[in-house]
Design the sequence.
């Protein structure tokens, strides 16, 4: 059985402590706390009878909406079963011999690349740089033999966003060397500035650029399974050819309009993020046992300092308070002092801060 | 863009003739015409808020129900995004060098096998045998070098069911020669006798046997995406390891109970099938321009005879009557005289028969 190493694994946790999963406050999954929009919910229910038909193999209506939303032509868009399927399929088609990945990062990248025979080279993001990627320094590591570079922007678990101009330098650098550059923008809508931070508008100029997107985080729909890739239409065509048919279910095929029509939800998200990101960060830095890395998106990486407790113990103690946090020790280059928490609504965030304070101070005495 | 070669492609058809897809009577997809059961619909709506959480990676609750339904232990069950994902994943893990497949059959088999480097050998089912597989004759074709045999039972598009005792001979024969045998039972519940025709109860004795199942047809949920494989738990474990995470969406994770609790729906299905399979077959054989192959499951293969019309033309003429049938000419070993129709409710079946009669007779004159 596959061992879960991802956030949001409520099921196991709930089972392990005998609490109903509904009673656990989940800070381990980085999902928009505004939850399901009413419009999305209504769209799902309105289309429930569609499941008696096979989903549209080519996701035409969905891609029409994604095209409006991203400004990218439909033929340069493929949709799939979450960003996960898209990632695997992209490696299946590109088949880079050697892939360079800054880390710590989402562990699925290496798994997908290695699944298609790619060798992985990691570039270590350093704690002393607050895990921020320095593009000039990174460029020096793009040596001969590298066929693809994969960047998560903003990056998970470090919550760091790369300056768009610097990212353009990197894209230009890889283009000149015929290197693919894959940017995972799963959290891009959950940054201050949102889609303006995306490099999607460079796609026309750069055939070596691929942008992976998901609706999981921004629309709070990890259970629905919907991701997409933007990129060169010839490669996209090959991805369609290799894709398992009907992997996007009928429900997911029908929610495109929410992206372009549900303006209120996106505005409310922006307002929430601007307020809570600062608030939670400022509260957490008051806890002396935590080193808190300044977040650029809707989650925060932290390190337990000045005490013996490790991340696994902190996780267990927090579960006993009904709060699930992400033990981040299994991310490449992190250790058993790191944890990650999502940013949620004020009430939940307050509960998190209070519980951390109690747990860390009690352990002290 | 992937070209659709499967039944049920309502979207393209509706577009091509300018009819709303709701107004087309779809005989191309072999789905239980009883449609969504009320209990299933209620379960889907009740769990709608679950999509804000990641689905259970291991589909535990679903597999508990599948275990009750099939009598197979949970650790010998993997669930995935339709039978398609299961098929690909099984070939990914088994990696047979050479796979023997009776055909005509579902085209995805060869695609999945070849995707993982397997060579395909076809065994031709002959029209003069009414496309029925003769096991003694087939055994002679399981020559040295064959690593896997893949059988669809009942078979698509021929609607033929293999006698269970004969199938056991084949399974025994392959076991002795260390050959994997994969049986796709996507339509097994839609045969007279239903699950009693399944070879799932042989799984304990035969480690070389794998059974692919889907809930698509029996529960009329092709849009939901849910399939599963029953087989040796070591292989199943490796399939979990290779599987793209979360490919079973939250909705699909939550419908297991319908299988074990919605007895009324299954009884009604049995009654419908027993009545309509005979009725439609007996009506169709009255049309002199059609050679009709006797069906064992919920669809019927037919051949246009005694006239020049081909399957593509018949399809177009039927669409003009608001009825979509399956042009079966692209199935291996069939030609442009073959079409396939689903068996639906009496009212729809009558419309089909009447339209076929009119279209075929008009062409005559």
Sequence:
């Amino acid at each position: 059985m596959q061992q879960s190493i991802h956030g949001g694994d409520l099921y196991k946790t709930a089972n392990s402590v005998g609490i109903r999963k509904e009673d656990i406050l989940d800070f381990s999954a980085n999902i928009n706390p505004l939850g399901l929009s009413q419009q999305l919910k209504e769209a799902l229910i309105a289309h429930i009878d569609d499941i008696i038909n096979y989903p549209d193999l080519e996701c035409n209506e969905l891609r029409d909406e994604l095209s409006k939303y991203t400004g990218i032509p439909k033929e340069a868009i493929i949709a799939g079963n979450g960003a996960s399927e898209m990632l695997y399929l992209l490696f299946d088609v590109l088949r880079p011999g050697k892939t360079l990945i800054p880390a710590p990062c989402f562990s699925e990248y290496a798994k997908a690349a290695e699944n298609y025979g790619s060798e992985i080279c990691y570039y270590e993001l350093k704690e002393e740089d607050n895990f921020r990627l320095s593009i000039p320094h990174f460029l020096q590591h793009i040596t001969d033999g590298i066929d693809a570079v994969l960047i998560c922007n903003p990056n998970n678990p470090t919550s760091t966003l790369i300056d768009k101009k610097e990212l353009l330098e990197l894209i230009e650098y890889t283009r000149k060397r015929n290197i693919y550059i894959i940017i995972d923008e799963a959290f891009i809508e959950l940054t201050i500035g949102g889609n303006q931070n995306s490099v999607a508008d460079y796609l026309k100029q750069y055939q070596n650029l691929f942008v992976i997107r998901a609706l999981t985080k921004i629309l709070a729909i990890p259970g629905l399974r919907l991701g997409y890739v933007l990129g060169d239409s010839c490669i996209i065509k090959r991805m369609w050819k290799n894709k398992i048919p009907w992997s996007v279910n009928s429900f997911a095929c029908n929610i495109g309009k929410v992206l372009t029509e549900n303006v209120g939800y996106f505005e409310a998200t922006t307002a929430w993020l601007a307020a809570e990101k600062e608030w939670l960060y400022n509260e957490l830095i008051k806890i002396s046992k935590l080193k808190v890395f300044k977040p650029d998106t809707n989650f925060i990486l932290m390190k337990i300092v000045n005490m013996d407790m490790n991340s696994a113990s902190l996780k267990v103690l927090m579960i006993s308070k009904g709060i699930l946090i992400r033990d981040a020790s299994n991310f490449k280059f992190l250790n058993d002092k790191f944890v990650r928490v999502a940013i949620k609504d004020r009430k939940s965030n307050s509960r998190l801060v209070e519980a951390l304070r109690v747990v860390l101070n009690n352990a002290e005495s």
